[in-house]
Amino acid sequence: MLPLEEAIAMAAAWAAPLSSATMVPPVDAAGRVLAHRILARLSAPSFDRSAMDGYAVRAGDGLRAGTRLRVVGRIAAGARGTALGPGEAARIFTGAPTPPGADAVVMQEDVRREGGAVVLSRAVACGANVRPLGEDVAEGAVLAEAGTRVDPRLVALLASQGIGSVAVRRRPRVAVLSTGDELVGPGERLRAAAIHDANRPMLLALLRSAGCETVDGGIERDDPDEQAARLGALAREADLIVTSGGASVGEADHAARAILRAGGTARTLAMALKPGKPAVLGRVGGACVLGLPGNPVSALVVFLLLGRALLSGLAGAAPQRPLGLPLPLAAPLARKAGRTEFVPARLVRDGAATRVALLSSNSARLRPLVEADGVAEIPAETTRAAAGTPVAFHPFHGLLC
């Protein structure tokens, strides 16, 4: 079976970066992927400034407690003061530029005001309570690399630099197709032996939350020719097609066969992964294709690993293997070794500690996903683990692209 890391790298390699980009204001870039590296235009702060409300002083080699200084000015944020001479101080407020000659700020709590002067109640050293020019960002430093997904933190950094627009790649357009004779859409009447399609709504919602444009490809019967025709049509309007069902190698599994009949290329994967051992990677025309297993939890896990890697490839970014947070198990674990396993899990409190309680690992059950806070990753070689053994916990909000 294919190791999970190799499968993730392979998926990313099937996707060519989207070439077109557009310029948007930073606030409108949130959720989008940068097309180019961004360098700092300014040092931040762009001048030495006070970190406290207090008094700007010339500390030099240091001022002792009891030193008396004449107050010669007042500097608010947004204003500039005049130069300080020996034995002088200026009232200053947080964020205001230190005046020429000043090299320290004394907190207002550390002085005693006596008319037009202040007396230091403790010693002050050069550089105290001053945020120097470039402390946060140096002019010309790299703020973000191409392929970075913009979030509110980066928006703030870009705005602080006065950057009015950034180049972002266009949003990937992803089509989602469910396959299976047994499937009917939500809201449709169930016939005998039929089930409602849960995968397509789940995947469409997931992709939209990741900032993708989506195409609802509907449901296609278990017929490779009909599936091939649908894939060909979807390939003309999508960068990525995600199918669910038929990803294995049985006689009723048509995902790879349909890709080939559509004139594309395909590779079937047998991954060392549970749930979700089978998957298909392919290409039809200009579109990548990811074939997922039909069981809902399997489809979700494989998409969160391989689908995420494909979206990274389309964005021109290196795929990031989810790392997870090491947290202790709430109860002992026994399992068969051989595959990395992702199990829906809930976080529970145990005194001051947070532990991971595993829920059902049945890949056809959706209820445990709703009850879970994320998934716990059990290494392939693990057969037994005592309560308290650390495992990698992946919160859903960190996995959903």
Describe the structure.
- It is built from eight helices and 28 strands.
- It has 401 residues and is an alpha+beta fold.
- The chain has a six-stranded mixed β-sheet with strand order 7-4-6-5-9-8, with no helix packed on it. Strands 16-13-17-21-20-18 form a six-stranded mixed β-sheet, with helices on both faces. Strands 19, 22, 24, 25, 26 and 28 form a six-stranded mixed β-sheet that branches.
- The two termini are 26 Å apart.
- The mean pLDDT is 94.
List the helices and strands and how they pair.
Elements: H1 4-13, E1 21-24, E2 38-39, E3 49-50, E4 54-57, E5 68-75, E6 88-92, E7 104-107, E8 111-114, E9 117-120, E10 130-131, E11 142-144, H2 152-160, E12 166-169, E13 173-179, E14 183-184, E15 195-196, H3 199-209, E16 213-220, H4 224-235, E17 240-244, H5 255-261, E18 265-270, E19 273-274, E20 278-284, E21 287-292, H6 296-315, E22 325-328, E23 333-334, E24 340-350, E25 353-358, H7 367-371, E26 374-378, E27 384-385, E28 390-395, H8 396-399
Parallel strand pairs: 5-6, 13-16, 13-17, 14-15, 17-21, 19-24
Antiparallel strand pairs: 1-12, 2-11, 3-10, 4-6, 4-7, 5-9, 8-9, 18-20, 20-21, 22-28, 23-27, 24-25, 24-26, 26-28
Helix pairs in contact: 1-6, 4-5
